[in-house]
Description:
Elements: H1 2-18, E1 22-28, E2 31-40, H2 44-51, E3 64-69, E4 77-84, E5 96-104, E6 108-116, E7 120-128, E8 134-143, H3 154-178
Antiparallel strand pairs: 1-2, 2-8, 3-4, 4-5, 5-6, 6-7, 7-8
Helix pairs in contact: 2-3
Amino acid sequence: MFKYLLWLFAVMPSCVIAAQSKVITDIGLSGVSIRAITAVNADRRVLWDTLTDYNRLAAFVPGMTLSRQISPANARTKQVEQRGEGGLLAMVLPDHVIMELDEQPYSRIGFRSVSGGLSSMQGEWVILGEQAPVTLGYRARVVTALPPPPVLTEDYIREEIRLRMEAVAREAERRMRLGR
């Protein structure tokens, strides 16, 4: 975790100035590692509420067709089911997954797959800062049953992750403007 936070601080100045997501991927024979960071013009609490709005994520995250919390509302560890459109990215990010989430309000959401179409997926969302703009970081390690196909380039994965990160940021910023 400490090394990840150091990485966030190292790239944070360029993200705040550019106001665009920075995504780094590494595709290997055993899976894919993803790190992403973006500046969000919203307060920490608004961004947190956006990320944890599990039953509405599919309304604003591109490629997501279903997101719903399947564990009781008051459960310490939450379970969320998500479905996607599939396509090429489904070779890396599953088109169906049930994840177990470990929330540390208002700074971190750890996740790991417990069911779905891949060997394993684990990672975290991290929010740095209190007042707008804050920094949103994402880290994931996805292990697929088969090696990702060569047509699935790092550029393609980076663009898809960038689109999703920026969709979350836009929704948080919209909510911030509305005062929610």
